[in-house]
Write a structure and sequence with these properties.
This protein is mostly beta strands. The protein has strands at residues 12-14, 21-23, 27-29, 35-37. Helices cover 0% and strands 15% of the residues.
């Protein structure tokens, strides 16, 4: 135990990250709810709060697929071109 000196209202706490025992005045609550020492404390990443923007991914002018047209021999001649 680090320093067995009585301090009123300053109890011992174990860091959730590193497991060391320290006083409650030396720990902080992190963004994910863990109680950690100052060495293990970190800010929440700014990208965690980014909200997605809805992207409309539809075709602007949809048209149905036309029916297949089959050409028989003799349907097209040189004069028809």
């Amino acid at each position: 135990m680090p320093g067995n000196i009585y301090r009123p209202g300053d109890h011992y706490v174990i860091c959730d990250e590193c497991g060391f025992q320290m006083r409650s005045s030396e720990v902080m609550k992190r963004w994910d709810g863990m109680i950690v020492c100052r060495k293990d404390w970190e800010l929440r990443h700014p990208q965690d709060g980014v909200r997605a923007v809805h992207d409309r991914q539809r075709v602007a002018n949809p048209r149905p697929v036309p029916a297949d047209v089959f050409v028989n021999p003799g349907d097209i001649t040189e004069a028809g071109l």
